[in-house]
Design brief:
- Pfam families: LRR_14, LRR_R13L1-DRL21, NB-ARC, Rx_N, WHD_DRP.
- It comes from Stylosanthes scabra.
- Keywords: ATP-binding, Leucine-rich repeat, Nucleotide-binding, Plant defense, Repeat.
- The chain is 31% helix and 16% strand.
- The protein has an 18-stranded parallel beta sheet.
- Helix 27 links the parallel strand 29 and strand 30.
- The radius of gyration is 33 Å and the shape is globular.
- The chain starts with a helix and ends with a helix.
- The protein is an alpha/beta fold.
- It has 32 helices and 38 strands.
């Protein structure tokens, strides 16, 4: 990418001269020589970029040129920074010793650079490169006029392939006799559409009906068992399990898959080195009946080793099918198909050799090319003659070299992400900004230019699998061949550092690094070889532990994402444009942050101890984005934030009464994205609130407002009226509002019409809500702590065809003691799409029939719903519910999952549960008076697969009715001390494969009657009963005690199918008795292949020191939080959870 970089350096040199910096630093002669050499080199770069494909010497010359250009760019940037200091710091003059030393150093380094580029220019002459008038592609405006990216509504030429695979999966799902793994391998060269085909199958309606679980894992080049298992858990649960050991991950996966019909896709497998390890995990527990695995690979050997049936060979597309695909992308549905272009297009398709990726890429390239010569240039491109590449790679190179220079660099930079990584669009654009790949253009802000660059790359098929959620957040992936192309372009300049990487051959040429392992495990000394390191990005998820190290100290860095906590070293990173601190232990940022004069993006993520920001932040005049996420301890902003005129994003502002801390600081800031305003009780009058000028911030999409509990009611009403937002909001949340009436703008459907998510939290005096039912896009609604509200919407509905809450899918109602109905006017159809409902302390509610309901969570006392947000609520004394409301019971008939919790007076489950033939999951917690489950209720739960019971202190019996649960696969019993026996009908539970027992003192008698139990996990036991040896179907057994288990019964010798035995918290006597060969109990366990005893953990000296250090930090932070905000702000948590984690 030397051409683009050199263009930037030449522009910076011109600015350098125009600003008279060459004279200031005494380097006029060197700048003149450099300018001449760079101009001569730049003239031949287009020829060199194309020749490097075939000539290695030219490629090495371009690499040397790129390395030198990076260093020269660093020097010019340093001069700019020092000049700004000289201008702003009145104590610093031209004759100050620091200035004199800097001038001397720059003079020396500029002379070295002049010599270096002189040598590069001399080498240029050896290659006989031709100077060209650089033919820059005209700005294609037509692509911007398309409404959206092309989506594949049909996969051409693969109907028979799909039919064969679906037939195989149907056979697997129906075959419940075979316990071996069924693996169907799909082999084909890169770009033939293996992944697209399998994704088509994966989402097929028949396939979704065949399997309980569908799991997708991209394996890629390294077959990493731990990472694959983690991906399986994430695919099923939606969250990172945060388990660091392979053993823990194995247990989690086996627990989830046991007894389930699942489809597992292992996409893009390159190696079988550790296939047997993964296979053993999937086999353990016998949980493979009806399961199937699809494997896609470019390696015939992988297909042969992993497959249990003949390999499905994916052939190239026929010329006819490939033409239809090309035509779809090149002409679209409405564009005229000119005869001469069709003829050329068909010739291009022949060169694509049946590769759908090649046809898609070139069709996308030509979509807005109207001239015949443009099509001919693609047909006659010299890249078709590169014999080392297949047709797909040739086509991708043609597509790449037809991009504008800036887009080439933007695309190539994506090599910093691992293969198959889901990339956040916003983060990528910020990294482009930091590295200078995009700049503002005319009236377009730099972020708009970045959006256009991303859109064009997407339109031209460089990006795929784009997902845009309801709140407009975009993520995407790259096809592995495009990723390989980006890697080949960047070469040694970009490095992904993970567990399989070695630093022994680390190149000085590296400019961009991403890390996929904890920073504490990375030897930063190896990076010192790099001559101009620009980016270090830690891509680990936030679940990983923070560290107490310093950030990497490489002065040339433009972008840094780190969890470091010792930040004094930041003062030397003066080139930084992007700083992302995540899970850092800092309590404030250091004052030296003011040294980062070029900083454009500052992102603080999950810095849980961060309580304030230094006033020096306002000295960062180029700061455009200050993003603060899940820093719940932050109680104070820097004063005079309005002075940071460039700010486009400020997602948290804490208002105060002191001068410089008021809402007027927001007046002139053109903010967009997300904004959370806390401390509104400190706003004295409506004119102060109006000074925030929210309605003028047209790019604002997500707004959250917070008051403390003791704010004045009348003042709150005036303040909220003055905080009218723009009409394009997608989400809105409000906490602690003490007014009785809502402002006029909250009654206007025109202002609220774009809302997708609404959170109204502890607005205790409100009597009416906005017209929520009339919001056409409202998908998520959370209302809590409003004691006087009777209706969710008390507007009238005139039209008979009108629907209320027509898009709502997820509804949470909590602590609403007087809520009676959703609508005052119930003549209209309502809630047609509602699938999830959570209700807590809403005793009077009456729901209509909810046709799409899948999940119900019902809580009686309000003490635990979704993490218990009642701690800080004045309405915590709201009337609870003694029983489950009838209208909820009546809506249970078609639901698939129910959670019932915190009904301390509930003595029996509603008889209506006996009619829930569709129910698959039932959870019951904290029902203290519940003594048994009636046989009639159990009899009707014929589809139940998972039953969880916890903290039901008086529960004595599950009743003989449990024998009717013939589909039950998983049973969890936790903290039910009186449940000591299970009914004799347990012998009818033929599908029950997994049981988990926790804090029940002993294993309940009768568990041994389960005929096919394969996995048992029992925690906090005082002893092991002798009858456990009767459970001969067991394949996996985990036990734990606090050192109370002293021996293993001799009956364990009967457990001939047991493959794994783990005992945690072992007493030393048990360890001695189980010693290999010589222990008294050794013969009882000698037949078990995998056996481990884990002693009770001992606290080390370092653990004690760390604990004391953490306690001291917490005490110090409490002293600093003098303004009274609770550290764990529940509204913050709620907003974060719904905004970031909710899958809509």
């Amino acid at each position: 990418m030397a051409e683009f970089l050199l263009q930037i350096v030449i522009e910076n040199l011109q600015t350098f001269v125009q600003n008279e910096l060459a004279t200031l630093w005494g380097v006029d002669s060197q700048i003149q020589e450099l300018s001449g050499n760079l101009a001569a080199i730049h003239a031949v770069l287009q020829d060199a970029e194309e020749k490097q494909i075939r000539e290695r010497a030219v490629k090495l010359w371009l690499q040397n040129l790129s390395d030198a250009a990076h260093v020269l760019d660093d020097i010019l940037d340093e001069c700019s920074i020092q000049s700004n200091r000289l201008h702003n710091d009145h104590c610093l003059t031209r004759f100050h010793p620091t200035t004199i030393m800097f001038r001397r150093d720059i003079g020396k380094r500029m002379k070295e650079m002049a010599d270096r580029f002189r040598h590069i220019d001399e080498e240029r002459r050896r290659f006989e490169l031709r100077a060209r008038v650089l033919e820059r592609q005209q700005e294609d405006e037509a692509w911007r006029q398309t409404c959206s990216g092309i989506t594949e509504q049909h996969i051409y030429g693969r109907d028979q392939d799909k039919e064969n695979i679906v037939e195989f999966l149907s056979w697997c799902a129906d075959d419940s006799s075979d316990e071996s793994l069924s693996v169907y391998p799909i082999f084909g060269m890169g770009g033939l559409g293996k992944t697209s085909l399998v994704r088509w199958v994966f989402n097929d309606k028949k396939v979704t009906e065949y399997f309980d679980l569908r799991i997708w894992v991209c394996v890629s080049t390294e077959f990493n068992t731990l990472r694959i298992l983690q991906s399986i858990v994430e695919s099923v649960t939606g969250h990172n399990p945060n388990l660091s050991t392979l053993e823990a991950m194995k247990n989690k996966v086996q627990e989830m898959l046991l007894g389930r019909k699942y489809l597992l896709v292992l996409d893009d497998v390159w190696s079988t080195e550790k296939w047997e390890d993964l296979k053993s995990v999937l086999l353990c527990g016998g949980g493979t009946k009806g399961a199937a695995i699809l494997v896609t690979t470019r390696d015939q050997n992988v297909a042969s080793v992993m497959g249990t049936c003949p390999t499905h060979h994916l052939s190239p597309l026929s010329e006819g099918d490939n033409w239809f695909l090309f035509k779809h992308h090149a002409f679209g549905s409405n564009k005229e198909e000119r005869e001469e272009l069709v003829a050329i297009g068909k010739e291009i398709v022949k060169k694509c050799a049946g590769s759908p990726l090649a046809s898609k890429a070139l069709g996308s390239l030509l979509r807005n090319k109207k001239e015949e010569i443009q099509w001919v240039n693609v047909l006659e491109s010299k890249f078709w003659d590169i014999l080392e590449d297949d047709a797909s790679v040739r086509a991708l190179k043609i597509s790449y070299f037809n991009l504008k220079l800036s887009l080439r660099q933007c695309f190539a930079f994506c090599a910093i992400f691992p293969e198959d990584f889901r990339i956040q669009k916003e983060q990528l654009i910020h990294l482009w900004m930091a590295n200078g790949f995009i700049k503002s253009k005319g009236k377009l802000e730099v972020e708009d230019v970045g959006n256009e660059a991303w859109e064009e790359l997407w339109q031209r098929s460089f990006f795929q699998e784009v997902e845009i959620d309801e709140l407009g957040r975009t993520t995407f992936k790259m096809h592995d061949l495009f990723h390989e192309l980006a890697q080949s372009i960047m070469g040694e300049e970009c490095r992904v550092y993970d567990d399989s990487s070695s630093l022994s051959n680390f190149s000085r040429r590296v400019h961009h690094i991403s890390c996929l392992k904890p920073e504490i495990e990375v030897n930063m000394d190896a990076f010192k070889k790099a001559e101009s390191l620009r980016s270090i990005i830690n891509l680990l998820p936030l679940d990983y532990e923070n560290n107490f190290r310093r950030p990497p100290q490489f002065n040339s860095l433009r972008a840094l994402r780190t969890g470091a906590s010792q930040l004094s070293a930041l003062k030397s990173l003066t080139h930084l444009r992007y700083l992302n601190l995540r899970r850092s232990c800092i309590t404030t940022l250091p004052e030296c942050i003011s040294s980062l004069q070029k900083l454009q993006i500052l992102k603080l993520e999950s810095c849980l101890h961060l309580s304030c920001l230094p006033k020096q932040i306002t000295e960062l005049k180029e700061l455009r984005h200050l993003l603060i996420e899940e820093c719940h301890s932050l109680v104070e902003m820097p004063p005079n934030m309005g002075e940071v005129k460039c700010l486009k994003t400020l997602n948290l502002f804490v208002a105060d009464r002191k001068a410089g801390y008021g809402l007027s600081e927001l007046r002139d800031l053109q903010l967009g994205g997300k904004l959370r305003i806390k401390g509104l009780e400190n706003v004295v009058n409506e004119s102060d609130a109006r000074d925030a000028n929210l309605s003028a911030k047209k790019n604002l999409e997500n707004l959250y407002l917070s008051w403390k509990w003791d704010s004045s009611s009348s003042n709150s009403e005036r303040i909220l009226e003055a905080l009218e937002p723009p009409s394009n909001l997608k989400s809105f949340g409000m906490k602690g509002y003490s007014g009785v009436r809502l402002p006029s703008w909250m009654q206007s459907t025109s202002i609220l019409s774009s809302l997708v998510m609404v959170i109204l939290y502890d607005c205790k005096n409100c009597e009416r809500l906005p017209p929520l039912g009339k919001l056409p896009h409202l998908t998520v609604l959370y209302v809590s702590g409003m004691k006087d509200v009777k209706y969710m919407d008390d507007e009238s509905y005139d039209g008979l065809d009108e629907k209320a809450f027509k898009s709502l899918k997820d509804l949470t109602l909590s602590k609403l003691p007087n809520l009676e109905r959703m609508l005052r006017d119930e003549r209209v159809e309502m809630l047609p799409l509602l699938s999830n409902i959570k209700v807590s302390c809403v005793p009077k509610i009456k729901f209509p029939v909810l046709p799409s309901l899948d999940y119900i969570e019902i809580e009686g006392t309000g003490s635990g719903l979704s993490g218990s947000e009642s701690d800080y609520s004045d309405s915590g004394s709201s009337e609870g519910m003694a029983s489950i409301p009838d209208s909820i019971v009546l809506n249970m008939h078609h639901v698939k999952a129910i959670r019932i919790t915190d009904f301390p007076k509930l003595k029996a489950l509603p008889e209506e549960l006996s009619c829930l033939s569709s129910l698959q999951e039932l959870e019951i917690y904290d029902c203290d008076e519940l003594e048994s489950f009636s046989e009639n209720v159990m009899q009707g739960l014929c589809s139940l697969r998972s039953l969880k019971i916890g903290s039901c202190k008086k529960l004595k019996s599950l009743s003989e009715g449990v024998g009717h649960l013939t589909c039950l696969e998983s049973l969890d019993i936790m903290n039910c001390p009186k449940l000591v026996t299970l009914p004799s009908s347990m012998n009818k539970l033929v599908s029950l494969h997994r049981v988990y027992i926790y804090a029940c003192d002993t294993l309940p008698e009768g568990l041994q009657r389960v005929p096919s139990l394969q996995s048992l996990d029992a925690r906090n036991l005082s002893s092991i009963p002798e009858w456990l040896g009767e459970m001969t179907s067991l394949q996996k057994l985990e036990l734990s005690s606090e050192g109370l288990i002293r021996s293993i019964p001799s009956s364990f010798r009967n457990l001939r199918n047991l493959r794994e035995l783990s005992i945690y918290g072992c007493h030393k006597d048990l360890q001695k008795r189980c010693k290999r060969l010589t222990g008294e109990d050794w013969q009882n366990i000698a037949h078990i292949p995998q056996f481990q005893l884990l002693p009770m953990p001992q606290e080390t000296f370092s653990d004690k020191i760390r604990s004391k250090w953490r306690s001291w930090q917490l005490r110090r932070d409490r002293r600093r939080r003098h303004r009274g905000f609770p550290r764990d702000d529940k509204f913050d948590y709620l907003v974060s959870r719904l905004f970031h984690w909710y899958k809509m």
